[in-house]
C-alpha cells in the first residue's frame, strides 16, 4: 500500500489511559475504500484506538495520521479534521425531541451555511440512502432499534465524510436488523466511495462484509488480514477470541491482566 492509498496510518503508536499503556507499538495502515473490522475482547482498547483517530486522545508515543495528515491535538485544525469523520458511537445519540429528519439536519445546520431548502433536500437524500425516507417525520421513540440506528447512520453521513467510524453499531439489535445494518455499511461504503472502520464484538455478522480484519488483545495487534485468514488462524489468542472460549491465553478479566502487563512494560 502506498502512502496515498492509506486513509489511516498508525506508526509505533502508544496510547495510555491514566498512567497505564492500553496499546503499544501499534503499526497499521487502513486502505482507502475498504471496510475494516476491529475486533478484540472487552477492555482490549478498541474504543481507545478510535479516540486516537478522532483526536480525543493524544498519542503517548508514535504517530496517528488520518485523511493524510497528523491528527491535530486541539483547536480549529482538529475541528476541521473531524468534519471528515462520520462517527456512529455506541448507542444512537439521537435527540428524542427531534424527528428523524431534524436529527439528520443537525450537523448540516451546525457546520454549514446552506439555505434551509438545500438542507431539506440533503436530509431527504441521506434518509433515502439508509432506506428511511418515509420515516422523516417520525420521532426516535416511534422507530424500531434497527431503524433508529439507520437514522443515526444517516446523521453520521450528513456532511459527506470520507471516513466512517462505527463503534459497536450492532449492539442491542436483533439478528435481522444486524444483517440490515451491516449490509448498509458495505453498500454505503461502496456507493459513496467511503472507507469504514467497524469496531464490534459481532464477528460473524461483520466478517461477510469486511475486506480486512484486525484483532487487538494483550496491548497490541495479534492479527491483521483477510476474513478468510482470520477464520483459518491457529493463533491461540485469535482462536480464543473467535471461539469465545473462557480459558486460554487471554485471561478472563482482560482489564486486570492488561494493567499487570503494562506495569512490567
Ligand atoms: N476514559 C478512561 N479513563 C481511564 N481508563 C479508561 C478510559 N477509557 C477506557 N479506559 C480503560 O482502558 C482500557 C481499554 O478500554 P476500551 O474502552 O478502549 O476497551 P474496548 O476494547 O473498547 O472495550 P469494550 O469492548 O468493552 O467496549 C480498559 O482497561 C478501560 O478500563
TrEMBL record:
PROSITE patterns: ABC_TRANSPORTER_1, ABC_TRANSPORTER_2
Keyword Transport attached: yes
SMART domains: AAA
Domain of life: Bacteria
One MF term in the entry's GO annotations: ATP binding
Annotated segments matching region Disordered: 243-265
Keywords: ATP-binding, Nucleotide-binding, Transport
Residue stretches making up the ABC transporter domain: 8-243
PANTHER family, A to Z: INTERMEMBRANE PHOSPHOLIPID TRANSPORT SYSTEM ATP-BINDING PROTEIN MLAF, PROTEIN TRIGALACTOSYLDIACYLGLYCEROL 3, CHLOROPLASTIC
Protein name as catalogued: ABC transporter ATP-binding protein
Organism in which the protein naturally occurs: Lysobacter korlensis
Upper classification of the organism: Bacteria, Pseudomonadati, Pseudomonadota, Gammaproteobacteria, Lysobacterales
